[in-house]
Amino acid sequence: MGQDKIPTSRVRRTARVGRVAASQAVKQAGTKAANFTRSDEASARALEKRHIETAEQIVTVLGTMKGAAMKLGQVMSFLDVGLVPEEYREEFQRKLGELRDAAPKVRFDDMRKVIEQELDGPLDEEFSDFDTDPIAAASIGQVYRATLHDGRDVAVKVQYPGVAGAVRADMQNLGLILRLLKRVAPGIDVRAIADEVRKRINEELDYELEAQNQRALSRIYRRHPFIVVPDVITRLSRERVLVTEFVEGTGFEEHKGLTQAERDRIGEVIFRFYMGCLYRHHQFSGDPHPGNYMLLEDGRLAFLDFGLFKRMDAEDVELELHCQRAVVEDDRELLHRLLGEAGFLPHPERVDSEVLMEYVRDSIWWYTVDEEIELTPEIATEVMIEASDPRSSHFRQMRHQDMRPEHLFGRRMEMLTLAVLGQLHATANWHRIAREWMYGDEPVTELGRLEAEFYGGARAPA
């Protein structure tokens, strides 16, 4: 396996991204100028072509980088935000999917050096067997299967050598990359996205911090009836190496071909894990993309990768629940007051309470409407547009609203969870499930009853 070198020089990396951005700027300007003499139909076709070309350039740039850029590519690969027209979407998704499933590989000799440096000794001192072919590739590392001397099978996540420097360079280039995205999705909030990635990506470089996050959820979900968070082998986990219990199961692509009932069950478990973690435990994994869970043979779902993680204060979580209840109960004045007092409305007098209610409802209707809903990629796209895009019916009226940074990460998690559920075409009365933490209602599903019994019984303390 040849080595895939990671350029760490900002100059070289900026030059590569900058060439693409400049090229697209010229093409975009040319398209706009030519559009003055074209028919509406011809203009639409030209704009579609620019969108496709820009999308392909984004894939090219992201595919040659690691760290922050690769993370963006993985997120884009399953969140269909209407970047390209319907007839080109399948091809665009296929290319982006390559980023999700086939992150660049580094030869094992170089990865071995990282492991032995971190563990202060040769590989065979800690492992009786170590498969040198990676079983998975993450945005900043690779995962291997190994066996400890006591016979336990483990997963060993190893950071790419030099990736920390590459990620820091990505942080400097992030504005250029996001400028490309802005050309095909003009409503994207570049500053908010850049700030969010910069805050969290450095945490993802520290596997010791990730181990702490995973241990916290592993304790919470120990002996859970349908959720598994693999245990961390603490004594072997370091800043660039994370060793956890090995789990084996089927992945997202296989799940999309299961029966409706099976996909519904998987969807409910995913919803309960990501959303339930936030509202029950005030901490959650912020990276609900398809590669981060698998279906085990016994029917449980194992959740993986806790580098992107968020803890929230109880009052911030209660504010979100209070706002959700206001939407359910159509209490417009209460919602306006809550968001105004919390700083979401810097000038509350400029925002009409009815418009505000419609805006928030359009963002969270799928789990605040009391009916069975089949989620789809189109629904995920529509919700994203209504929440943040100039194409939104609320964009003009809601230009005075702001997003408080302590809540931004949760909204990202919610959107990505919706995207996964949409690709599964999962069906449920999501509101009835959410009422368990929104109102403290008794569960109405079998999984809910199993989970209520789990939370009501004796278990390991969180």
What's this entry about, in short?
The protein is α+β, with helices and mostly antiparallel strands and 462 residues long. It has helices at residues 10-34, 40-63, 68-76, 86-101, 108-119, 163-184, 190-204, 207-220, 252-255, 260-281, 314-328, 332-341, 353-364, 377-388, 405-424, 430-438, 446-456; strands spanning 127-130, 136-137, 141-148, 153-159, 227-228, 241-245, 249-250, 283-285, 293-296, 301-303, 309-311, 373-374, 427-428.
Write the layout of secondary structure elements.
Blueprint (H helix, E strand, L loop, with lengths): L9 H25 L5 H24 L4 H9 L9 H16 L6 H12 L7 E4 L5 E2 L3 E8 L4 E7 L3 H22 L5 H15 L2 H14 L6 E2 L12 E5 L3 E2 L1 H4 L4 H22 L1 E3 L7 E4 L4 E3 L5 E3 L2 H15 L3 H10 L11 H12 L8 E2 L2 H12 L16 H20 L2 E2 L1 H9 L7 H11 L6
Parallel strand pairs: 5-10
Antiparallel strand pairs: 1-3, 2-3, 3-4, 4-6, 7-9, 8-11, 9-10, 12-13
Helix pairs in contact: 1-2, 1-6, 2-3, 2-4, 2-6, 3-4, 6-7, 10-15, 10-16, 11-12, 12-13, 13-14, 14-15
